[in-house]
Amino acid sequence: MWGPQWFWAVWWLDYGFIFTDFFKTFTAEAQRIGRGFAEKIEKTLCGNSANPLRLCGEKTKRKFMLKTTFFLLLMAFILSESAPCLAQEAPGKPGATATWTSGHKLGVGTAVNVRSKVWYTLGEKGLTEVYYPRLDTPNLRNLDFIITDGKSYYRLDSKHAVKHETTWTDKSALSYTQLSSDGARWELQKTYTTDPNRNTLLVQVSFRPLSKTDKTPYRIYALIDPAIANSGMHDTGYSEGTALIAQEGNITLAVTAKPPFVNTSTGFAGVSDGWTDITEDGTFDHWKKRASDGNIVQLAQLGGFDSVLAFGFGEAPQSALEQAQSSLKDGVLALKKANEDEWHGFVKRLPVVNPAYRDTYTMAAMVLLAHEDKTYRGASIASISVPWGDAGNADDANFGGYHLVWSRDLYQVACTWLALGDKEAAGRALDYLFNVQQKADGSFPQNSWLDGRPFWNTTQMDEAAYPLILAWQLERFDDNTWRKHVRPAAEYILKKGPATEQERWEEEEGLSPSTIAAEIAGLVCAADIARKLGKNDDANRYLKAANDWANGVEEWCYTTTGPLDAGDRERGYYYRIGNNKNPNDGFQIEINNGAGKFDERAIVDAGFLELVRLGIKSADDPKIVRSLAVIDKTIKVETPGGPCWYRYNHDGYGERLDGSGWDPTVRGTGRLWTLLTGERGEYAIAKGEDANLHAKAMQGFAGPTGLISEQVWDRTWTPDIRWKFGKGTGSATPLAWSEAQFIRLVLGIEQKRIVEMPEVVRSHFQKK
Q1: How high is the pLDDT of residue 86?
Q2: Quick one: pLDDT at residue 2?
């Protein structure tokens, strides 16, 4: 069809520049090329007497115009496909240092099913981290909005709005609306939902001037900050038609909208991003830019005051864009209803509790399900947040935050699923612990990525013991589980225990009452499994060690010469941890987080309550009762909502004195931990007392949408307006362990018992 190759080579050398100009005209006037375009070709080429190809005969001319038109269309297609490569690179590579956002979340969302592998979080001022395809892989830092008149007026929603409200819109689903306003000229509403059938997050955006007489020609821009593959650096972004693409490795984010974006561009954070550009003169002047291998920020002008943004994810740009476009085609209202209907079905299966706790209890259960990964089933991360992430460096893709799996935290969650009657969910957790996390020597990593790769490698002996308790509770009495998992873990405990490299606060080595309690209970459960399988020798060895350690914990960890009860007629209390089996030698321990050195007898926590929770000691045990008196005198704080406790005195893991985020290089101040109120409530249940005080306190600690944090602010005065006495800090909200503890406490109040206590342990030590 095209003739000899040399013919076209000579032809392009002679006339290629002409068609370059025509291609520009073609792309600008694509709707009007038709006959007029053909006439331009005839006039330009056939009117040129110097044309050596003599193409002006009628028959030849028609053929030439057909070929030329086809050629131009082909070139348009090729150039449009390669447009991202041809777009001009934005200046300022690689951009500013990347960070994550505050660990204080007001919303968490995902679909109930495992088809949609997208999770999102909401901060006080808007959308924050979005995860795909796993819960350990955030790909977006935040979504912001710019409101401008295109000239001199420009405002950033997160910076200039004086009002920010987050509302939980459906009390049986993870659905939220956020409203912001500058208080004078406009308000902006955002509603979020995930497509239950695809890897897409949908954001409905509605802008309104506050005055009906305001005729300002407002323009609304979405300011999108990708952080692909768990890193704010090394991302590449560009425009693809009316959509935006951001990618790194095999993860791609495509953002498109209905109505379509008017224009799009990508720049480098803090240098050539949309907000930086607009603040120079009130307008954005660098559309269709591309930014490669850096900390990128993308800008899109919305097509109207009411828009739906679709954030689609995939391995490649085309698949990510197809996800987003298909979700927009199905419609946000239909998908929102489908998502909420699935959550309604989940909530209907929950046990009924006191109506006073119903909303917080329902939210806690939904949050626990949202913390389970959809690729590595059974794996629940500690929190879908990065504690003090706004103060941390996000350039490193190996930064784990709390989106990692701790055996201890997962045990707390699995026990809660059992208490809720969901044996299948608890079983998935145990399968993950045994089949993905457990090491060849029977131990478990301190924590791990979802695929089981250890993140930190210190050994914590309670994390080897809790899976044994869970195995007994789930009645895993088969020979395969025994041989491959239970026996190796029990043998590891016998070999390494009762001392631990780190206790449950992950800081100190030695003999810890909380760790020893878990080891004892784990060995008793392993012994019972062994007995059921006829492994009597193993059973006897495990029980002997459990009995010896149950007696030893008092001898090793109960001091009678400590300074915290000096002057009392009767002396003695459990301390946090000791370096040897002499609790009265006054060894100086170095407390992590820059707190300094202290006499080990002067540092206390309430970890000894594990002895009661797991059934080893009775709630009336005199040493337990005496120790609690010291605890309340030393580390208890009455908040506006109720009592709460520090992890231990002189803790340094918390905001600094000025309220800014914790920094491992600078000592912070440990704040109050919500889950400790729940543990104290379970102790009250064991003692036959009313634990509603503690449940109400935990509920009071929750944020406006019912999420329960790791820590709450511990004093009436605050140097930072974000933190309020008895409310969550920037550490981690929600924390799965806290949510699980609240659920178990509420169920325990209903059933008048500690719902997760292993009966085999209680009956062994408290033969009643």
Answers
A1: 63
A2: 42
In the 3-class helix/strand/coil scheme, how is 167-198 assigned residue by residue? EECCCCCCCEEEEEECCCCEEEEEEEEECCCC
Asked if 187 and 210 count as a contact pair (C-beta separation under 8 A), the reply is: yes
Token pair 């690689």: residue: 94
d(CA 508, CA 310): 47
Q: Which two tokens stand for residue 218?
A: 């407002």
Helix (H) or strand (E) holding 292: strand 291-294
Show the beta-strand stretches assigned E in 457-614: 558-559, 573-574, 588-591, 596-599
Q: Is 503 a catalytic residue?
A: yes
Q: Which of 503, 508, 519, 610 is catalytic?
A: 503
Distances from the Cα of 715 to the Cα of 120, 197, 632, 639, angstroms: 31, 46, 16, 8
Q: Which two tokens stand for residue 582?
A: 């002499």
> Which pLDDT belongs to residue 3?
46
Check if the beta carbon of residue 476 is closer than 8 Å to that of residue 414: no
pLDDT at position 594 is 76
DSSP string, 80-114: HHTHHHHSPBPSSTT-SPPB---SB-SEEE--SSS
Closest CA to 605 of 630, 579, 576, 634: 576
Give the integer Cα–Cα distance in Å for 197 and 115.
6
**How far is Cα 246 from Cα 400, in angstroms, rounded to an integer?**
22
Please tell me the distance from the alpha carbon of residue 730 to that of residue 661, in angstroms, as a whole number: 7
51 DSSP assignment:
-
| Cα pseudo-dihedral 86, 89, 90, 96, rounded to 10 | 130
d(CA 121, CA 403): 13
Most distant pair of Cα atoms in the chain: their distance: 120
pLDDT for position 32: 36
Contacts of 71 (CB under 8 A, 6+ apart): 19
The contacts of residue 328 (CB under 8 Å, 6+ apart) are 202, 256, 257, 258, 308, 310
What's the confidence (pLDDT) of residue 392? 76
Q: Report the residue count for the chain.
A: 768
Looking at residue 134, its amino acid is R
Per-residue tokens: 588: 């100086």
Helix (H, G, I), strand (E, B) or coil at 297: strand
Q: How far apart are CA 78 and CA 219, in angstroms?
A: 33
Q: Which residue has the tokens 């007026």?
A: 153
The first and second tokens of residue 715, run together, are 């004093």
Identify the pLDDT of residue 62. Answer: 55
Residue 743 has which token pair?
Answer: 């659920």
DSSP state string for 516-558: HHHHHHHHHHHHHHHHHTT-HHHHHHHHHHHHHHHHHHHHHHE
Spot the catalytic one: 322, 342, 501, 506: 506
Nearest residue to 611 (alpha-carbon basis) of 747, 755, 742, 515: 515
583/565 Cα distance (integer angstroms)? 15
d(CA 734, CA 728): 9
Q: Which residues of the chain have pLDDT under 70?
A: 1-86, 768
pTM (2 d.p.):
0.89
Q: What is the pLDDT of residue 18?
A: 35
The closest of 171, 176, 109 to 358, measured between CA atoms, is 171
* 92 torsion bin: left (phi>0), alpha (psi -120 to 50), beta (else): left
- What tokens appear for 151 in the block? 């000239």
| Per-residue confidence (pLDDT) for residue 395, from 0 to 100 | 87
Alpha helices in 443-512 (DSSP H): 461-473, 479-481, 487-496
Task: In whole angstroms, give the CA distance from residue 108 to residue 570.
Answer: 49
Strand partners, 194: 201
